[in-house]
Amino acid sequence: MTHATPYPIGTPGQPWGPAEIDAWRAKQVKQRSYADEVLAAIEPLRAAFDVQDYGAVDYAGEHYRFVALRTRDWDASLPVMVVTGGVHGYETSGVHGALQFLREHGNDYAGRANVLVVPCVSPWAYERIHRWNYDAIDPNRNFREGSPAAESAALVQLLAPLGDSVLMHIDLHETTDTDESEFRPALAARDGKVYDPCDVPDGFYLVDDADKPQPDFQKAVIDAVAKVTHIAPADAAGEIIGSPEVAHGVIEYALKSLGLCAGITPARFCTTTEVYPDSPRATPQECNDAQVAAVRAAIDYALAHRG
């Protein structure tokens, strides 16, 4: 099955050039404020956490700071737990779930783990409720050294010195109806490919690392989130978003080779959350709560099984 209506930018079958990217960029409208909704929410957290600017970008005269928060009394002898959100700017609960976790539970692990949280990896995209950055690049396929996405390159550089001390990395995402109505059709158009639709799963699911799966870790997170919101069922083919379901609410990707955020570090325990905010069975607060439950379960499991 193919998309009936061609994407409104570009020529079907031909990858975009600079003119098409300019046309796409001209359509992106600022819809909310990173400064008011994210940076302002970080300010009160300075009382309990070290706040670090780890880079910045300037896009068409607009300046965006990349900000991370760390355990104040960082102890190099303790394992590191990394939480990232807002890799895709439109995935709202990833950003606000990360901030809610810090407010409510960020200091629960004092003396047992170092916590590093990057609540909004892609601030320009956050403001435009979009998946890509200013250059029409998806940061979540470009987490590698020398990345063409400034957002990805800065995060890789931030995390690189932590090395093997990172025990757990959880990356907070959403799967939305706009994945199929806008973002995947745009991707196909940008790359000169045919758009092949998928069903959007109704509920929460996880993406494990196919190269080093941790099924018991994923199950612990799923079990915790199931107390907050519903878990996505597999479709008739036994798949979730086009990938085989390997356990209830779990699929697998090769995180590192695909350039995905949760594959940046050598963490033994890593996962990507996927919340479905468009479900009639979920509220925005429930989505945030699901992200918080996932983070807490991930850290608790990693600490209990660090070996």
TrEMBL record:
A Pfam family matched in the record: DUF2817
Residue ranges occupied by any Peptidase M14 domain in the UniProt entry: 30-306
Coiled coil (UniProt feature): none
GO biological process: proteolysis
Domain of life where this protein originates: Bacteria
GO molecular function per UniProt: hydrolase activity, acting on ester bonds; metallocarboxypeptidase activity; zinc ion binding
SUPFAM superfamilies per the UniProt record, alphabetical: Zn-dependent exopeptidases
Keywords in alphabetical order: Carboxypeptidase, Hydrolase, Protease
UniProt key word Hydrolase: yes
Family to which this protein belongs: Belongs to the peptidase M14 family.
Name the record gives this protein: M14 family metallocarboxypeptidase
